[in-house]
Amino acid sequence: MTQGPNRLLDDFAKLMTDAAGVAQGARREVETAFRAQAERFLSEMDVVSREEHEAVKEMAVRALDKVEELESRLAALEKGENAAAGDA
Predict the structure, then answer these.
(1) Cα–Cα dist 4/12, whole Å
(2) What pLDDT digit, counting tens, does each position of 12-27 carry?
(3) InterPro entries under this entry (predicted)?
């Protein structure tokens, strides 16, 4: 009779281990389904990827740098024209 309670506890432990495995499997399936649904939703929304965003951001930074450079060159040219007009 000494094996009765031990066997019951062993069976219960096995049942709990199996239940935990089933729960993990269900969790993975839910995560996979959610991820697939989210990807489908985002693809329908025409959202840009991080890489595309970073590329456009870099292009904008370079364009702004070029604008600043051209503005300072223009200011220098205008200053030179004003100085030459004053000499005449």
Answers:
(1) 12
(2) 889 899 899 999 999 9
(3) UbiK (IPR007475)
Locate 71 and state its tokens.
């503005």
Statement: residue 3 has pLDDT above 70: no
Other beta carbons less than 10 A from residue 7's beta carbon: 10
Tokens of 15: 């049942």
Decide: pTM greater than 0.85: no
Entry field: residues in the chain:
88
Which residues, including other chains, have CB under 8 Å from residue 83's CB and lie 6 or more apart?
none
Helix ranges, 1-88 (H): 3-44, 50-87
Task: Give the position of tokens 């996979």.
Answer: 32
Residue type, 57: K
Q: Mean of the pLDDT values across residues 62-71?
A: 97
